Amino acid sequence: MKPLYLAPMEDVTDPAFRALCKRYGADRVYTEFVNADALVRDIASTTRKLTISDAERPVAIQIYGREPEAMADAARIVEQAHPDFIDINFGCPVKKVAGKGAGAGLLRDVPKMLEITHAVVNAVHTPVTAKTRLGWDENSLYLSDGTPFIVDLAERLQDCGIQELAIHGRTRSQMYRGEADWTLIGEVKSNPRIHIPIIGNGDVCTPERARECFDRYGVDAIMVGRATFGAPWLFAEMKGLPAPRTMSEKVAVLKEHVLASIAWCGNDERKGIVHSRRHFAASPVFKGLDNFKQTRIALLRAETVEEVFAIIDEIVARYEKIL
C-alpha cells in the first residue's frame, strides 16, 4: 500500500500519540498546529510543540498564521528544530483560526495565501508542504469558467514552490459534517499540470476505504485523522501488519498512551489524563457495548491512573467474552 500519514490535529498529535502511530505503521506524522505569532513571541506552550525525535521521522511541523512576514519568521524558527517538512495550515476550519483569517480562512483570500506560501518557501531550505480544503463553501467550489477551485489553487500553490499538497475533501463551511468529496481530490491528481504529490484526506476509516481511495483517485498518499482517535493501530490494520486484535491487547495500548501522555505533561497525572481523554471517548474499542453510557461518563471523569485503569479493566472483564 502507498504511504499513510497521521494528520496534524490540535491537542491530539503530541509526541506520545505520534510515537504510537509511528510504531503501528504511520509513514509520516505531523505535529499539532503551531501558531506563527505565538512562536515568534516565544510563548513557551507553543515552542514546546516543536519537540520532535529522530524515532518519529519523517515528521512535519505544521504552522499557521495570517501574515506573510510572521509566517516566514516562524518557519525559520521551526527549521532550527530540524523537521523533515514544514507544513502550512490552510485548512483548519475552527472559528478561532479561520475566523481570524488563518487556516481555512485564507481560502477567501487566495492572493494572501499565495503570498504566505512564497514567503515561507523562500525563508527556509526545508521542503515546504501545505494542507487545505476544497474551498470556503459550496458556492466557491468552481470558478466562473467551470474549473474546480481546488484544481486552480493546487496549480498556483505548486507554482509557489510547495513540495506536496494535502487536500481535505470538504469545504470550510462543512467543518467535519457530511461526507468528504474525493472526486475533486481525484481531479487535482489527474491534472496533467500537477507534478507534486497529492495527499488525500477525509473519512478514511477502514483498510477497505484506504484501498478504494488509492485505486479510484490515484493519490500519492492518504492522511488519516479522526479515525485514529483511540486507535493508533489503524495504520497497521490498513497495511495488513500485525496489530492488536483482542480487547485486552487494544486496551493495553490505550493504557500505554495514558502513561506516555502523563510523561509528556511533565508527570502531571491529572493533566496527562485530561489530555488523553478524547481517545477514550472515541476509541472503537468501546463502541457498540451495551449500557456503556454511564461507564463512559465515569471514565471521562476519572482523574487518576488508578481510577482510569480500574474502569478500563472492569470493561474488559465484562465485555471481552462477547467481542
Labels describing this entry:
globular, eight-stranded parallel β-barrel, alpha/beta, TIM Barrel, 323 residues
Structure description:
The structure is a single chain. This protein has 2 domains: 236 residues, Aldolase class I (TIM Barrel); 76 residues. The relative contact order is 0.11. The chain has 323 residues and is α/β, with parallel strands linked by helices. The protein is 44% helix and 13% strand.
Kindly report the spatial arrangement of strands forming the biggest sheet: 1-2-3-4-5-6-7-8
Count of helical regions: 14
Overall helicity: 40-55%
Q: Sheet bearing the most strands, described?
A: 8 strands, parallel, barrel
> In total, how many domains does the architecture comprise?
2
CATH superfamily of the largest domain: Aldolase class I
What is the architecture of the largest domain at the second tier of CATH? Answer: Alpha-Beta Barrel
Helices and strands in order, then pairings?
Elements: E1 4-6, H1 15-23, E2 28-35, H2 36-40, H3 44-47, E3 59-64, H4 68-79, E4 85-90, H5 95-98, H6 110-123, E5 128-133, H7 149-160, E6 164-168, H8 182-190, E7 198-201, H9 207-217, E8 221-224, H10 234-239, H11 247-264, H12 269-282, H13 293-301, H14 305-319
Helix pairs in contact: 1-11, 4-6, 6-7, 11-12, 11-14, 13-14
Short characterization:
This protein is an alpha/beta fold and 323 residues long. Helix content is 44%, strand content 13%.
